Amino acid sequence: WSSDVCSSDLKLNPRSPEALTAYGNVLLELKRPKDAASALDKALALQPQNPTTLLYRGLALADSGHREAALKDFDRILSLDQRSLFALYNKALVLIALQRYAEALTTTEALLRLEPNYVPALQNLALLHGEAKNHVAALAALDKALKIEPNTVDLWTTRGMTLSQLKRNDEALRAFEKAIALKPGQVEAHENKGNALLELRRHEEALASYEKALAAQPQYARAHALRGRALSLVGRFEDALAAYARAMTLKPSDADFHHYRLLTLKEMGRLDEALADSDSVMRLDPNRPYFPGEHLALMTELCFWRGLDAGRETLEAGVRVNKKVSLAFS
Predict the structure, then answer these.
(1) Which of 69, 160, 184, 185 could disulfide-link to 175, CB 3.0 to 4.6 Å?
(2) Burial (CB count within 10 angstroms: exposed 0-12, middle 13-18, buried 19+), residue 182
(3) Mean confidence (pLDDT) of the chain
(4) Cα separation values, 4 from 1, 14, 26, 324, Å
(5) For residues 151-175, b (16+ Cβ closer than 10 Å) or e, as one string?
(6) Are 130 and 165 in contact (CB under 8 A)?
(7) Which residue has the higher pLDDT, 195 or 302?
(8) What pLDDT, on a 0 to 100 scale, did the predictor assign at position 288?
(9) Quick check: pTM over 0.85?
(10) Distance of alpha carbon 322 from alpha carbon 326, whole angstroms
C-alpha cells in the first residue's frame, strides 16, 4: 500500500525529493536495496545535503554490499551533524562488517558519549571488546545494557558466551538459563548452554541441551556436530558418528566437524579413519592454531600401531604433503 502511495506521489511530482526519499525508504523496507539506492540517488541529485536521504541511501548501499560507499554517506551526515546517533550507529555496523574493529570501536565510543544508555551501541561495544579478547570489558558493557533492558534474550545469551570465555561456566549457565526462560526456543542459548555443560564435564546434560537446540532448529549443522561430541563423551560412539554424518551432510566443509569426528574415531581405535579426518582439518583450516602438532602426534601414534616400517612410510608421506607438519617434524 505505501509503495503504491509513493508511486502515485512520484507520478504527480516526479522531481519531489521528499517523494523519492519516501519511495526509497519503502523499497528498503521491501528488501530491494538496489532499487532503493536508485530512487535515493535521484532524490540526492535534487537535494544533496538531506541527512534523511543520505541515511537511507547509506543503508541501501550497505545492504547491497557497497559498504565503502555507505561509509561515505554516513560520514557526509556526520559532517553536517556530528551528533547524529543513527549515522554513528550505522557507520559502526558497516565498519564491523568490514572487520575494521578499531575504527568501529572509536565510532561506538563517540556514540556512547552522546547517549550512554543506547543499548544497541552497548551491544556493539561488547562485541568489539570480545573481538579484542577483552572479555572483562565486554561483560561490563553487557551488564550495563541489562540494567536498562533486563528482559532482552540476546543480551543474556551474549553475557553467557562472554562468561564462558572467562571460564566462569557456572555463571554462564545461569545466563543461558535466563535467556531460555525468556524465550524457550532460543537455539543459540541451548547450544551454548550445552558447551558450558561440556566444559563442566556434565555430558548427559550437555547432550540434552543440544537436543533441545535441534528440536527448535532441526537443520542446524553445528548442533548436530556438538551433539555428536556429547554422545562420544558418554560412550555412544556409533550414535556420535551418525550425528557427525548428519552435520557434514548439512555443512560439508566445516573443519570443526572433522575435528570432532577424528577425536571420536581415536577413542574408538580407528586411527586410519581418524587420520583421514585430520587431513581434512589441515586442508579446510590450514591456519588452525596448534593443529599441526596434533596431526603429527596422530601420525606418530599410527607408526606404533602399524609397525615401524609401515608407520615410517605414513609419517614421511604426511611430512612431504604438509609443510606445517614438516616444520613440526623437524
Answers:
(1) 160
(2) middle
(3) 89
(4) 5, 14, 10, 61
(5) ebbbbbbbbbbbbbeeebbebbbbb
(6) yes
(7) 195
(8) 79
(9) no
(10) 6
Residues whose CB falls within 8 Å of the CB of residue 216, separated by 6 or more in sequence, listed in order: 185, 186, 187, 190
Q: Could you tell me the three cell numbers for 255?
A: 573443519
Q: How far apart are CA 257 and CA 281, in angstroms?
A: 9
Q: How far is CA 238 from the centre of its chain?
A: 30
Residue 15 is predicted with a pLDDT of 73
CB 283 within 8 A of CB 258: no
Helices (H), the chain: 2-12, 17-29, 33-46, 51-63, 67-80, 85-97, 101-114, 119-131, 135-148, 153-165, 169-182, 187-199, 203-216, 221-233, 237-250, 255-267, 271-284, 291-306, 308-321, 323-329
Per-residue model confidence as pLDDT tens digits over 211-224: 999 999 999 999 99
